[in-house]
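Teaching assistant's notes for section 4

Start the section by putting this record on the projector. Ask students to predict, before seeing the second block, whether Protein NrdI will look compact or extended. Collect guesses on the board.
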Amino acid sequence: MSPTALADKQNAGAHGSVEFTKSNLIYFSSVSENTKRFVDKLEMEAARIPIFATEPQLISTVPYVLLIPTYGGERGKHSIVPQIMKFLRYDENRANLRGVIGAGNTNFGEYYCIAAKRIAQKCNVPVLYTFELMGTSEDVLNVKEGLETFWTPASQNRQER
Ligand SMILES: Cc1cc2nc3c(=O)[nH]c(=O)nc-3n(C[C@H](O)[C@H](O)[C@H](O)COP(=O)(O)O)c2cc1C
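Reveal the predicted structure now:
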């Protein structure tokens, strides 16, 4: 375990329980669970960022793609929910992030999927895909195939160059 993971573990231990995950797909979904419904249709192993403070905090131990909805405030302010902010405060969760997939609603115009776009920009990783609400069957297929290609060694080598 790296020193930062150890520090995170000690930190997290001081504030509550933690759960380590080897999942290549990590997502957030609120109680309305649109995003969860989409992730279920992917039929892939995925870890969910906790909604409630009483749940163990999730810490990634391998490279992963983050799939998240936007909950925008006024003019896109506070569009990243506190649970995702908390998750990204862990060094390991930022270090292992390789790409972001955004869920949203085009009714929000220029703020469509703004949370995913902002995280990608801040963490210097690509926005891999965006979709509305629980996604169409075409979105499910695109993300399924896209992630399979994304995790092939050839594709990973190209990104490291
Ligand atoms: C209060 C509220 C604010 C939202 N703000 C945005 C927004 O700024 N941009 C966007 O693309 N979608 C926005 N959405 C749409 C959600 O991202 C969308 O409903 C998503 O599927 C919710 O996922 P979940 O049910 O898994 O939490 C908003 C939805 C709600 C209820």
